[in-house]
Fold each of these.
Amino acid sequence: MLKKLEITSKFLKQVSTLIKSREQAAIIKIFLEIHPADIAEIIENLNDDEGQYIFEILESQKSADTIIELEDEIRDNFLSELSPKEIAEDLIEKLESDDAVDIISDLSEDKKNKVLTYIEDKSQYNNITDLLSYDTNTAGGLMAKELIKVNENWSTVECLAEMRKQAKRIKKVHTIYIIDNNNILLGLLSLRNLLVSEKSTPIKSIIKKDIISVKSYEKKEVVANIMNKYDLVVLPVVDKNNKLLGRITIDDVIDYVKEDAEKDYQMASGISEDIESNDNIFELTRARLPWLIIGMVGGILGAKIIGVFDLENNFELAFFIPLIAAMGGNVGVQSAAIVVQGLANNNLQSNNISNKLIREFGVGLLNGIICSIIILFVTIILGFSFALSITVSISLLSVIIFAAIFGTFIPLILNKNNIDPALATGPFITTVNDILGLIIYFSIGQAIL
Amino acid sequence: MLKKLEITSKFLKQVSTLIKSREQAAIIKIFLEIHPADIAEIIENLNDDEGQYIFEILESQKSADTIIELEDEIRDNFLSELSPKEIAEDLIEKLESDDAVDIISDLSEDKKNKVLTYIEDKSQYNNITDLLSYDTNTAGGLMAKELIKVNENWSTVECLAEMRKQAKRIKKVHTIYIIDNNNILLGLLSLRNLLVSEKSTPIKSIIKKDIISVKSYEKKEVVANIMNKYDLVVLPVVDKNNKLLGRITIDDVIDYVKEDAEKDYQMASGISEDIESNDNIFELTRARLPWLIIGMVGGILGAKIIGVFDLENNFELAFFIPLIAAMGGNVGVQSAAIVVQGLANNNLQSNNISNKLIREFGVGLLNGIICSIIILFVTIILGFSFALSITVSISLLSVIIFAAIFGTFIPLILNKNNIDPALATGPFITTVNDILGLIIYFSIGQAIL
């Protein structure tokens, strides 16, 4: 009985010890009871050689189920150790078509073609070559070909026999689709209806027609929004004529939803690539350096701007540079984040964008007034000169309002030009607001002091 | 046939016009064909009175299905217009137990008790009072009671009859659970096995025993991790003796996964409450002001720190205040974000935290060296004095390394003390790094200049 497993460091040490003494039988016995998702996690927590050893001694179906759960880097390592024939026979032929395609897509063009020639199961070969023809960012690229379909004109007895036959080749039956003679999707046969109806009922009379489907060329994010909105566990994919092509299951979409939310978060935090905390130093550095360089360019520009003003005779102005810069950045990021999430969740209709700007101006004004009153009193109490206090207070109000509007506007413009609006949050907007904040602050300061 | 719907502003205007002329029949006809999730979205895009009108004329099952899809605020408005009797009869009795509990939990204690007295369906009443006893943050709080279960000792004929009976009361059949005489969960009867086996097969022989379940007291996030990791669409909930209590479906968990990722993003962006871009100005202001005040406190501290040093005679030091502050903040947020995501995805084992700190130090060192070399050359080329260039370069190196370590450490410490580590990203860490960066910069500057 497969169970969920708590992977402790004690357990990992036991496994390491067994590997060192090459106790193959004992290891196989342990792993027999472990879910592939857990085996993958164990392998990721062992060193490369130990992981490779485990992967090699796994029974073929289990190693196929495990490899699709592994992190890309480790998976690629394992694949590079296998011949095209091994990949075809031990992995590809044991997997459902969508997972098989994920593996094949990771290979070089040359190795991919070799693997294809070794696939003996004709229907798997056809499924894979068909799936490879779709753009990976579309519904077609997400779908699997395995599904159960019955013809509306069949009798119940025919259907049951056919369903049994089809189910034997499929791991998990999600839904039974009903098609016409031309493979056009008509509806589905729900498990509930199947259970509730008597055996003699004709298929046509128990068809559930309110079925939501997606066209093969629609984007991943459309698929995710549809499945999420309508609470669907499986979504049929059709071509432009409604011919049934395949189906997408929710687990593939969850990964996408999660990655998408994480990507926004990483962008907002100034990390440019998809990295994980376990990646190596050079990958981590490469993902972070671009944003730091933007920050440096901003800092150097800031130095030049400050240099333009007569700081020598108004050196107290320097005291509040950090305050002005920080507040501009904070407000800008807040405004941008709200817009980015609104866009991601599809609850920003383009017809209410002007409302949005007005509201954002209102929020900026309110926050700005509150903050500038606080700062005026605090600076006076702390003994800064009245002129400086007034300068800081007025500058802060202007910077906050400006940053709020700017932070709202930039992601909307990026989105309109089909650039990921999340780019606008994080270091980019902080840097721009820093600079604009400095210009506003010193201009007001120069005028007042 | 229900279809997915593109909600355009043209369509919304048509609906508004129909509402104005009170064309009830026409409206009902339109909404007959629309999915409750879309009706909810339409209501959210109309004004309050129009939304209320639509909700009132919907047929009862449809209004029940729609209300669970609505945003909290609008839902609460609608509920406040209904009497306890209407809520019980028109909504609660038409919903599955988990959704019914969501509605009831939104009511005041007083109204809740009144609604309960009006629930006539005995089994729904029992389901709801049972579910209300669980903590909403646990598996018990997420589950629904509706499920199909059969006894391992039953004959196939008995099972099919019983399954049909149970299925009639349930909207969507996900899985059929197999229990013993004491209601202990033994396994499940997969649709696939049901299809593949002959009618005379005894239940016991086709039981699928490798079933993953969750205890009712386990936390929401544990549930989400399990369903995500093992690609589960439905997860049975048991008590500590493995008695079957209910089941959780993936759609409830997706919402949670999404909200959780969004919450981290909002925190990183300095937004303290769950708000949406459509909320009103005061809610938006309240969610953002706390972080701005933290930023102001940091800015004032920064002013005091700069005041301590002899800026008057070294006023050029002020030129690079924005650079140092920005870089400290950027690096700190990057480091913290990686740790926060690692913690959220459960791939940070506590046994490799020291590795993590060493690696983060390495990344900081590498980024720091690259940035400080670049800044040294650029400042010299731009004509800043050599002493100032050296000061900025050394300070930048120190600040980057320090911020990287600090950014890694803080979320780990927060997490260890059961505080949400996402608090560490965003304005908090930026502000702290600003101040520390200033101290490092001016100390080095004072020593060199």
Note: Chain B touches chain A through 127 residues (CB under 8 Å).
Amino acid sequence: MTVCRELIQRLPAERFYYLGDTARVPYGTKSSEAVCQYATEAADFLCAQGIKLLVVACNTASAVALTELRETLNIPVIGVLEPGARAAVATGARRIGVIGTEGTIGSGSYEKALDRLAPDLAVFTAACPLFVPLVEEGWREHSVARQVAAEYLAPLLAREIDALVLGCTHYPLLETAIRSIVGSEMPLVDSAASTAAEIVDLLEKEGLLTSAVCGEQRFFVTDVPVRFRRIGGDFLGTELQFVERVHIGC
Amino acid sequence: MTVCRELIQRLPAERFYYLGDTARVPYGTKSSEAVCQYATEAADFLCAQGIKLLVVACNTASAVALTELRETLNIPVIGVLEPGARAAVATGARRIGVIGTEGTIGSGSYEKALDRLAPDLAVFTAACPLFVPLVEEGWREHSVARQVAAEYLAPLLAREIDALVLGCTHYPLLETAIRSIVGSEMPLVDSAASTAAEIVDLLEKEGLLTSAVCGEQRFFVTDVPVRFRRIGGDFLGTELQFVERVHIGC
């Protein structure tokens, strides 16, 4: 939803189809095989809606499934990982810290993406499995969130990183806790903004921007939508007009 | 696995088929509809292996799916919730606290089970969504676990409970942290032992105990088994001989 919000703000005339796989999340603790299967099923559902571009708005799925999705789909597929890596390089930092789920960090995808862009950078990574549950529990500014952040970030600070990539779409919601540990000067790279910017560029370049004004959002979830309707609506600051439960992958 | 370990110790001659739905856990944050569907699919898989009794060794699934499973299956189905409630009543406590996942607590199933057994008890409940992630992260005796336990348990202690039901099969693994908050005198009810005892009784009563000595355990998981093989083996204190990935529900 952090990526979706950025996109809606930048492209208010476009029609968005959003799928949240709420019946099978979190992805960050699952194997790459499982996440790849789930991402493929989600992509198949969205492609059946007639989309012109697919955004994989999840770092874990971007880390393990992007290559396969690009090979099998005949529309542009944009992940959040490469835009995040490019934004990290753009900070000018030389020693980059990356935090993410076990799946994202275990895949080594950020190291590979940063190495392709700037092979002389030093990259240090840390998995932060409790961050997503803390956000889901609503303890974003709780002292426990600060304590957990201190523990996860200490090894990165010991390596004297000079920028930190928030390599999970949940983590920008913990910015206050993370900022309290890394200090006010550390650049925090949130891939939502850079991903949205790249998508706008691509749509312009390919002549894919809508000419009609649709401005509609359709939200699909795989579990019952009660919780999503409430939290998603709060997050976007508006009541969600269209939320529907769907079954995918079977 | 806390229930499975108890059962293997008490019934070493029996053959056990264990299914861990690792591709879709956790259940505690999912809707009752989703958990009910997953539990039915898991039961169908296990019944196809020719089992003589089904243990629903998860409080969330016991809370929301037991009635449906009992109606549709023609073998005995034992959940962990009723044995836990009976063990709580047996402590002689008058003001019982129950902690569990959002799914278990939201279902009201413990209140109902305790009310059926002893309508004059006072029951107070609290959902503890961060406990399962803390166990999965291995922070069982970390100061963060104690701080989270303090926060979740404070409202129950304020109600002057005199026994606490650990209404999730993960929670006995947090006993040190929980004990540090509730003190050394509070009875902690772990349904694993009481469930195992009831199963032994039932098998004896129904003449279902094995006459051969099989003593075999077959573990099935729905995600790749690497992590399960390691953690499950550590937990049972022996290398798991048979672990296989299976696809269910499709």
Note: The two ends of chain A are 25 Å apart (CA to CA).
